[in-house]
Amino acid sequence: MLDDLHLFIEIARRKSMSQTAKDLGLNLSTLSRRIQALEEKLAEPLLQRTARGIVLTAKGESLYNELGEQVLALNSQLEQLNDSPAAKEFYLLCPQNIIAGPLMGAVNQFAMANPALNLHIYPSNANSHLSQKRFDLAIRIGEQQDSSYFQKRLGMIAIKLIKKKDAPTSRLILPYSESQLPSGLLNKLKTEYEHISFCFDITIARKTVEAGYGIGLLPMSEICCIDDTSNFCYIDSPHSIPARPIYALWPHSRTPSANAQLLIEQLQTCIADSPSLQGEVLRL
Questions:
Q1: Among the residues of 25-57, which ranges form H helices?
Q2: Domains of the chain, with CATH numbers?
């Protein structure tokens, strides 16, 4: 019954039978049959299938709220006890620009120290719903809205307006969506700049700034990658542009798995040696 209860919790987290089956490597019909068996044991329906996905019944909602965290934690502990010395899988989600840049050393160190581990890296700058992805550890930039996962703050990244000295000042290059900016900031910027170019990849945005296309709103993790900073200057802004926090997130239990904890520690060491990841504004 514990296995079936765990399957129900995983479905409740994702609000999707098909996504749960895919993530857990199960046949959809098998998963549906297991949930039906659980509902028969409890003598009450737990899920309702709608055109928009899965909706929990009152009983299902109560069960998820009361037992969800404990069941996930227990299942995680059982998986760790059953781990064999053979190769295992580890899934890491991380923004592409930061994983290929300042955090790459820590990730390489982690991989080399765990030769039996199959490390799967999914680089993405999209802060998508983590419930739709399989992961052991996720690195995310910015305040996190999803409270379904446990998190640890690792660092901060300051953001500044920067341009090449001979670049035009009428164009602003933004690598952030409106939801990633402080409330109302985009409207204020639109009144100050004649042209605004959106570029939803931070590294590409930095390269356009390096080419002299305009003023860029860039994080220090990208500014530190500019080779000859003497040809660039910061632009003072009357608006508050807060630094963006760096978080590590993991599922299932308050304590990350042993491998996730090891990677977190190596990332912390890397961040401690990187002023650009500690909220500092780098000198040009």
A1: 28-42
A2: 2-81 (1.10.10.10), 88-156+244-277 (3.40.190.10), 159-235 (3.40.190.10)
Phi/psi-derived region of residue 237, left when phi > 0, alpha when psi is between -120 and 50, beta in every other case: beta
pLDDT in tens, 153-212: 999 999 999 999 999 999 999 998 888 888 899 999 999 999 999 998 899 999 999 999
pTM score over 0.85: no
What is the C-alpha end-to-end distance of the chain, expressed in Å? 61
What's the CA gap between 46 and 61, in Å, rounded? Answer: 8
Which residue reads 């991989």 in tokens?
111
What is the distance, to the nearest Å, from the Cα of residue 202 to the centroid of all Cα atoms in its chain?
15
Query: Among 236, 267, 241, 238, which Cα is nearest to 109's?
Result: 267
Query: To 10 degrees, what angle do helices 17-24 and 2-14 make?
Result: 120
User: Residue 202: which of 234, 179, 164, 173 has the closest Cα?
Assistant: 173
Q: What is the DSSP letter of 64?
A: H
- Helices in 158-272 by DSSP H: which ranges? 185-192, 202-210, 220-223, 258-272
